Amino acid sequence: MTEQTPFYATTAISYPNGRPHIGHAYEAIAADTLVRFKRLDGFETRFQTGTDEHGQKMQQTAEKLGTTPRELADTNSARFREMDDELEISYDRFIRTTDADHAAASQELWRRMEANGDIYPDTYAGWYSVRDEAYYAEDETEVRADGQRYSIGTGTELTWTEEESYFFRLSRYQDRLLELYRSGFVQPETRSHEIASFVEGGLQDLSISRTTFDWGVPVPGNPDHVMYVWVDALTNYLTGLGYPDTENPLFQRFWPADVHLIGKDIARFHAVFWPAFLMSAGLELPRKVFAHGFLFNQGEKMSKSVGNVIDPHALIGEYGLDQLRFFLLREVPFGQDGNYSHDAIVGRINSDLANDLGNLAQRSLSMVAKNLGGTVPEPGELTVEDRAMLDEARAVVAEYRTAFDALAFHRGLESVWRVIASANRYFTAQQPWVLRKTDPGRMATVLYTTAEVLRIVAVLVQPVMPGAMARLLDQLGQPEGPARTFAALDTPLAPGTPLPKPSGVFPRYEEPTALAD
Ligand code: MET
């Protein structure tokens, strides 16, 4: 066996200052799909997600709720983890930045940046958004009618902050960062341009410690300071591999990360600060930062005050997990903003899943069960139509792989669904239910061809809908393990394989109170 190539992917780690919402689920599902894809495609994967528990926002939220930041983090971090488990996110580590090994990693990164001459003490005087945990320059702020100052970019309220602080010499890294962006480090392209123009505008040194509260990782050598939460947060990607022990087999194998998957609102932290910290510390840079878009609820931004926040648990209950995963990745071109609505998800469930894929499986496999003794049929000689159908299905593998490698999940799924549409047309045109009487041998060939197309589809779509595709592969007599990997795509169904009794994979969604249409 050839040696596997490592692949390390991460999500952002979420602030556990509240419950997870659909935006968190969206990112976790996308990252999980990517990792499952690489795993099935023969890579040795490592996947990390978790919660970002320090900082002023956590401390302030806890105070408002009359609890401690630690308790707040414990309660909500558990909820994030439950959400991930319910979404079947196949993480290898769920990191909490309050985990025992994390402070050491953050402190070592700090020491290395300091040893490189990039950290100096000064005083910070400027605007800070606790909601964003971000500093804003004067020209990124505006005063609104209420007399308060807000961040123009994010709309969050700002507080004037003046305190002793250590600074990181971010200004030193402008040229190296611009060079990095030319290599495609930030994706998609639009985000890369935004980041590059921000950096071209000139970089200020960055305040990287706080002295007005203490909920954070202590700064080495000066316990009056805690690290700015983003310094410790970004370090999580290293902690999970055993850093600062760079001899740790995980670190050796998986650093640098292949992709940090994040939301577009935090691109600046990942594409400017993080590579600069790593360059300063003399560590390798991740290969890619991919920033996805936002999900809107029928065109509106979801927010607690509007009351249109969607709870992933409720969505799973209503539509089913695989259906939700499929919808999110099929509906929205990954990287762009997208819309969630009940009608859109029901549309996808009933047309793409129930009608197109579900129906194809149902009508072909039930004929196999009824007429061919429930084993994979023995095909006769293939006609031009059979060959064309099989060739089309086999050709989609390369297209799908290219799309998924570029995180263009919607494109990969679109090409698979083109094959499904062709297979439905093929099935209808061949009329195996007529052949049953006129030419049973031909019927067997048509059913074989259809089953083989279904097998290719099911193997490919597993990363998106692991549960439903496992059930379909069960019905195709494909055991768990090697037969379900992408390496098996070239090994056609073996005639004679016994098949279990088929059952529907995708039920239609019926409106609970719907009037019959
Ligand atoms: N907690 C941050 C956020 O939600 C992400 C940190 S990723 C290192 O914006």
UniProtKB/TrEMBL annotation:
Domain Methionyl/Leucyl tRNA synthetase: 8-364
Subcellular location: Cytoplasm
Name assigned to this protein: Methionine--tRNA ligase
Organism, as annotated: Kocuria tytonicola
Reaction catalysis annotation: tRNA(Met) + L-methionine + ATP = L-methionyl-tRNA(Met) + AMP + diphosphate
Entry keyword annotation includes ATP-binding: yes
Keywords carried by this UniProt record: Aminoacyl-tRNA synthetase, ATP-binding, Cytoplasm, Ligase, Nucleotide-binding, Protein biosynthesis
InterPro entries the record matches: aa-tRNA-synth_I_CS, Anticodon_Met, Met-tRNA_synth, Met-tRNA_synth_2, Methionyl/Leucyl_tRNA_Synth, MetRS_core, Rossmann-like_a/b/a_fold, tRNAsynth_Ia_anticodon-bd
MF terms (GO), sorted A to Z: ATP binding; methionine-tRNA ligase activity
